[in-house]
Amino acid sequence: MASPESIRAQAAPAILAWYDRHRRDLPWRAPPGESADPYRVWLSEIMLQQTTAAAVKPYFRDFVSRWPDVGLLAKAAGEEVMRAWAGLGYYSRARNLHACAKIIAGPLKGVFPSTEAALRRLPGIGPYTAAAIAAIAFGQRAAAIDGNVIRVLARLYAIAAPLPAARSEIKARAESLVPAKRPGDFAQALMDLGAMVCTPKSPCCGLCPLQAFCLGHASGRPERFPCKVPPLPRPLRRGAAFYVRRADGAVLVRTRPEKGLLGGMTELPGSSWERDYDPALGLKQAPVEASYRKLGQEIDHVFTHFALRLEVHVAEVAASQRAPDGCRFVAARDLGKEAFPSVMRKVIEAVRRSSGAG
């Protein structure tokens, strides 16, 4: 059975050789042998936080098409950035992205910091993101530890301690493996290995360059690593959303406060979201007086810390209806330009599918 010392000696050469043959073709990656663009690395890493590469690709392409450098992104209106981000989720990332762009384009004169410590002082950049940018964009010997890397290393060393307690050991193992040469390629190789081969279920050990000295594979049950404590069930909150359509087709919307959940995003007016939601009180929070009909379908959505279930009420109002304070009517043709989060898109789609509404 391999020792930690032999693993440390063999892992980096094996995985870099595998990466040179099997690396993923991703739009934010520099071609082999070329230097990475710090702007593209930073942008992609912010987008990839808790989001799959497949989901990020179209958003990344759209952002670099609209704003090909950090200076142009910094000059963009916040509302425009939020609209471009809409649907990607975890919207605080978009607000931090824009704030970070302004700092880099302003006080830092367009130059990205190159060290983990300096990067972590910027909005939206935590330990993993700082390490990834430092390694990939600047060749720093930094250990970028995301979910894929945690899984690969927990299996490689058969780390029995459950997460999150195992994180300190995984971090130490990761730091010991990073080579002095090609640390950025090594970071991306570990990510690719976790995404393509060392998958959460049914890992393809026969294709893995680390199989010969992987302690998890030697145990016969690599899929049991990393060990996890069962998550607590998410509490359920309930509420109401109101789809108010004027006779000219315009729809009533409002913008959420900048700070807090879904900050700065567009939403349909609605009630507060409560664990002990009272439907009768929810109706009293309707934005305008009208004859509402309730959809037979409720909308379910899951946030990081709670689940949400919304009942949907639809009303038609006169073309002369004025928007109440804090709200505005948006023409039907312009709804697609609004920065609706996923939960609101679900509500709108449900209304459009229902009979008698569009």
Q: Secondary-structure element order, as H and E? A: HHHHHHHHHHHHEEEHEEEEH
Query: Which quaternary structure do these chains form?
Result: single chain
Beta-strand residue fraction: 5-15%
Largest sheet: 4 strands, mixed
How many individual β-strands? 7
- The CATH topology of the largest domain turns out to be Endonuclease III, domain 1
The CATH class designation of the largest domain is Mainly Alpha
Unreliable spans: none
The radius of gyration over CA amounts to: 24 Å
CATH architecture level-2 label of the largest domain = Orthogonal Bundle
Gross morphology: globular
What does this structure look like?
The strands form 2 sheets. Strands 1, 4, 5 and 6 form a 4-stranded mixed beta sheet that branches. This protein has a 3-stranded antiparallel beta sheet with strand order 3-2-7, with no helix packed on it. It has 14 helices and 7 strands. The protein folds into 2 domains: 4-144 and 164-189, Endonuclease III, domain 1 (Orthogonal Bundle), CATH 1.10.340; 236-353, Nucleoside Triphosphate Pyrophosphohydrolase, CATH 3.90.79.10. The longest helix is centred in the N-terminal third of the chain and has 19 residues, at 4-22. By secondary structure, it is an alpha+beta fold. The mean pLDDT is 95. It starts with a helix and ends in a 5-residue tail after the last helix.
